[in-house]
Amino acid sequence: MKQNHENKFVDSPKDIQDGIAQIMIENSTVSHFETSTVSSNQMGGQIAQNISNFVLTPDSSSQYEKELQMRRDDHDVKIFQESDLIFSEEQLSVGLSNLFGGHYYRDNFINSLNEFYNYLVKRKNQYLNQNLLNVTEELLSSLRELEQFLAYNFFDYPPNQLTENMRFCLYPDLCIDRGGRVNPGDMKLYDSHVEKLNDVNKKAWESYVNYRREIKVTLLV
Description:
14% strand, two-stranded antiparallel sheet, 3-stranded antiparallel sheet, 7 helices
């Protein structure tokens, strides 16, 4: 049972790049230059060269930048919306509250958290805005730390649960409320685990708050 539990924790989008050339053509001016030269060694020898240059005018350059930024924003909004459907702020808040107050979590919490992490860590799902990318990396780091702590310090309790949404608790054999031994040594050890749990919980929540604030400021969602 414990092994199965631990096993759970284990460039820019092409569509944006494809549109750049089309935007440049639509917002460009075309100039043609023709030159001809006559060879000094051959009578009538002539070389004709056609040169076509695409030059963005100031107005079209500004329009191009707006179009490109719009595509970038649309990409980032999509990433946030899809990730939020996987694991929302409410789900995180409820899950962390259970960890803070009850020192337990359920399968549905960690499964959704893992799916959220695995979605955002993929290169194709990385934000294009650098500020969003930075806060997302901080969030993923704190969530990974939380996942690892849960994997190594929580155990299924009560035993023999007949449910798909199993409950896992922080060292139940050290907790007097869960049948643990009643002695000062065990209580002190349990309290030290609680302190570490609260630290990783706090870091995860604060990093999510920073992430969500940056999303709102940058993308207005």
